[in-house]
Fold:
Amino acid sequence: MKFDEKELMKMWQETVLPGDNGQLAQKIIASIGQFDRTISWRNLREYAVGGTLMVYFLWQAIHPTVPGFAVLPVAGLVAMSFVMIYLWRSQRKNPPIDPSADAVSYQAALLARYDRQIKLLGTVKYWYVLPIYLWLLLNLAFIASLGWRIIFFLLVSVFAVFVAWLNEGYAVRKLRAKRADAEALFNA
Structure:
């Protein structure tokens, strides 16, 4: 009786743990794919917005509408570049899935992806909110009225706190719950 390599690999994957591990491995692979697609779409939206803002800031730096405003677009370019580069570098760490791995290895890969996202979103106030917040505060120097400065400061501060909470609180809590579900796959 002769088996080809793919059949042997499939048989090995299915017999690593008791039960129907072939289906479990496929379920975990599907979860990894769905998770990667979700993150990719989120990043694509972030890159699109960041790229659009960078083009706008570059245009403003080359063609300032008001003399003395050249510092704002340059600072905006620096802030958006930092955010986009940080996001891009953090997402390069996802290794590809090994097709010859077993269900336990797939689960470990999924858990590692959740851990990386939890860590990334847990520090969003430093690499995402802070650079943009500082740029927005720099804009205060060009608002003439004290009343408008106070209103702008309050609005920007509330928005920054909301974005930090949305990522570090709500999103991290959701990811931790999904991670716990993924961790419990072999206990079911």
